[in-house]
Amino acid sequence: MIDPSGVMTRLLTGQGRFTADEDHAGALHMAILRAPEAHGRIAVIDTQAAEKNPGVRLVLTSRDLIAAGVGRLRVRTIVKGIDGPMFEPLRPVLADGRVVHIGQPIAAVFADSAETAADAVEAIDLDIEPMPVVADPVTAQESPGIWPGAPENRCFRWQAGDGEEVDRLFAQAAHTTSLTVAHPRVAVSPVEPRACLASYSDDAGYTLITPSQNVVALRTAFSAVLGIDPDRLRVITRDVGGSFAVKIWPYPEQALALFAAQRLRTPVRWVQERGETFTTDAAGRGRIDQGEIALDAQGHILAVRINAVADLGAFCNPAAATTVSAGAVRPYQQVYDIPGQHYFVTAVFTNTVPTDAYRGAGKPESNGTLERLIDAAARQIGMEPWALRKLNLIDPNAIPFATPMGETIDAGDFPAIAAKLEDAADWPGRTARQADARSRGLLHGAAAGFSVHASGGSTEERSLVRAMVDGTVLVRSGSMDSGQSHLTTLASVAAKALDLPIEQIRVEQGDSAWLVRAMGAGGSNLAAVAGNTVHRTAKAMLETAKRTAGDLLEAAITDIDYAGGRFRIAGTDRSVMLGDVARHLDDQGGCEAELDFEGIHTTWPHAGFACEVEIDPETGAVHVTRLAGISDIGDVIHPAAAFGQITGGFAHGLGEALMEGMVFDDDRQPLNGSMMDYALPRAADVPFMDHFWSPTDSPNTIINAKGVGEMPTIGAGAVVHNAVIDALSRHGITHLDKPLTPLKIWSALSAHSS
Q1: H or E stretch covering 430
Q2: Is the pTM for the entire model greater than 0.90?
Q3: Terminal Cα distance for the chain, rounded
Q4: CB-count burial class (<10 Å; 0-12, 13-18, 19+) for 127
Q5: CA torsion angle for 682, 686, 692, 693 (degrees, to 10)?
Q6: What confidence tens digit (pLDDT) does each residue in 643-672 have?
């Protein structure tokens, strides 16, 4: 097992260091009073009884924070829509006079124990006068306004593509198909809930230990909220038990812990309860698409357009606006040559916890709608859906391919992916498997489709590579591992660049004390951004070391060869080790290099996936029986980790297609807000995937690695969705909204049979 720094050994033997494992002597425990109503005026909030509880050290409400000058949480980017700049409601750390979603923090208690803090929360007298609830994003624009500055509950309207050209192409089309595709809110549900440990001293300032995807971004956000110089706040992230974007955002709980730690001069810890994740974590998805596709008489796709309504929740989370706008259209056409493209989105507020980017960040919705449209159009014109897809693939000779959305696809051979997928999936054999399923009283469905990501995310990467006197090498990166084997992957990149065993590489991340710039984790940017920067930095460090080796060996640098950690005068046995060079430079700043990312950060990892399902018509239960995949992520740095990302990413999409989705009543109370009620895919739901790599070379990356983490999720849900509809189509069912639960399928079959 390749295990630089011993990270896998630690995690597999129960020695991981997660935030909840952090223990600080005398730390107080924080508990939160949360809104029990989705919308209402705070008529009474009386904390006197809670403050008198033994062991309670402090109770905070919005009055305390306002008096202390604590600021509000902000978005990262103001999106400019067709009506002007978006409306941004500033998010208070504690509700100020009114609550706007279930779970919104109203008061915070700090006590000697978690039990004491929880009891004190119960002692707070709270009375909320209900106000009208905006529950449905589709009707939000006809509902009473949540924010005075947002008429019709609109945050913004935004569009991309050429609407007039698309209208023209639709007018001349031989066939058009329309479909409404809903992408329900989902609970992100990482294994490790959110947590934090905050401390303060006059000398060191503030310290926040918390699971995150970007410590520098959190430092920037919380220093603004607290009104302090960023240099006075240190943010540390150690092991992270999953995130998928939910832990990248600043949350009120972290700001509260920091504020109280400074006021009380005592460390404060908080560990989220699992039930809180459903009402306080940023949710994923939440988009309803009206999709249309136009074809000519031969089946060539002329144009596609989507008119979307995006549910932002009660506030606009830091990246939500860009997720539902620009993030939704980068790989809009996926692998298909579609001349006309248009996307229009209305982003609305509802009385619900905010949504934001979640594995794929707007792209699984766009892919899901497009792939459903292709299937529906194929059936409408009597063409096999897979044949229609192959007919419309981008010609590899046209790559680099400029898309109507302003992107350039850098590399790929999509027809080759399709051909290899047919072999891996035994696509012709599905007819026999359908007959076998029918003989057992089951419905059989099959579908194949594509998944593309425009990877890259942030380019705020600064990498450091330092040779140590013991012959090892330290790598520091602004990326952040949350369970994707980043440490091992970057160690592999450095080891290859330095011609050293991977065991000699140590990778560090997650400390704003030495991170000035940090891209964090997002947009599948590890390989494309951090990997390339670590490679360049390692080579730059070697050049520095080579010059010093020449001085030590009293030879011209052109006469120095390097291999395996040793510098040698060519043609002689005179040499010096990398560790010796580091020792010589130890008092001169060290043998190191530090570089920022340069170049084009976008690559286009992609895959073809095939899925087969069997459905029991007596129960509606779906059993996924076969999965196959062919992926192009460029050169595969860490095959085990990359295949894990393919499998896990597909499981995310499968879960959304078959079982995941938040359910609310008319008052926006969650009806499945616990793990007893919210279904997640288990190992038995996801069969082993017959998967193979099919790399092509990208001109945008030095190390020819394109990213992988989000790509499979972008297309997985649609492939599973289409396989289920394929099985049901023989009974006259041509569309059902996700999630395709047994009850929904059984009800549809029962309705059609009667």
Answers
A1: helix 430-439
A2: yes
A3: 58
A4: exposed
A5: -40
A6: 999 999 999 999 999 999 999 999 999 999
